[in-house]
Write a structure and sequence with these properties.
242 residues, two-stranded antiparallel ribbon, 10 helices, alpha/beta
């Protein structure tokens, strides 16, 4: 299983002299890091559509223009794997499909379509027959709730029948990674130390977290750097054993 580390590309220790990891980056945020795309072990590009939209009123967004800029970046940097604009809740599935077709036409490549619950089971079956790499979305925002995770087994089994790889967007529940054999997942969990003042340690199979005591302060950048390297260890473990 490939674990892609996402988030906070501005950290200098991500950019400088350390590229032996899988990276997921958002088109909305990628700037100086774009020159590093070819140096990562594997690279996934998220459309950044929701971030873009959240900074504007949705009815003022020109999605055709956004698609053109997204496609231009993909072409310029020869990005192999990139996600569609899965903005179903904003524009509806038909418009998502139109934008997907336009993106694929402009890049002459298939994107990674992102399944959401609103698309239904049949849509999943059609996706895994039409694409060799797909994703499940809605995990981070709990559109898919933890009690529903066992359904992943059905989704993964149906994809396997079609030799289709599945990415779990934002799914890094370590217990779940042992249960559900995604081809790939991504995580910003290494940044939680900044938010909660916690330090992570990989013990060879799982992550152990130590949280600061009341009144203690942490050096946030040093904690983020430490946690990042521990999550690199998790990624290495997942690639070998999951």
């Amino acid at each position: 299983m490939k674990v892609f580390l996402a988030g906070d590309g501005g950290k200098p220790w991500i950019k400088d002299n350390f590229f032996s990891f899988n990276r997921l980056e958002s088109f909305y945020y990628i700037t100086s890091e774009k020159e590093l795309i070819f140096k990562y072990d594997s690279f996934l590009l998220d459309s950044g559509a929701f971030t873009f939209m959240n900074n504007l009123k949705s009815d003022t967004v020109n999605w055709d223009d956004y698609i053109k800029r997204y496609a231009s970046f993909i072409n310029e940097y020869n990005v192999k794997y990139f996600f569609e604009l899965d903005i179903d809740v904003i524009v509806g599935i038909k418009e998502v499909e139109r934008l997907r077709n336009k993106l694929e036409s402009l890049t002459n490549k298939k994107c990674i379509p992102v399944w959401h619950k609103s698309r239904g089971k049949q849509y999943w079956l059609d996706m895994v027959k039409s694409y060799d790499y797909v994703a499940i979305g809605g995990i981070v925002i709990k559109e898919i709730k933890p009690k529903e995770y066992p359904y992943f087994t059905w989704f993964l089994n149906e994809a396997k029948k079609e030799n289709c790889k599945v990415h779990g967007l934002g799914f890094t529940n370590l217990t779940g990674l042992h249960k559900y054999p995604f081809y790939s997942v991504d995580s910003t969990a290494w940044l939680s130390g900044n938010r909660f003042g916690s330090v992570s340690y990989f013990n060879g199979k799982t992550i152990i977290t130590k949280t600061k005591k009341q009144g203690q302060r942490v050096k946030t950048d040093e904690v983020a750097k430490h946690n990042f390297y521990e999550w690199v260890k998790i990624a290495e473990y997942a690639e070998k054993y999951l």
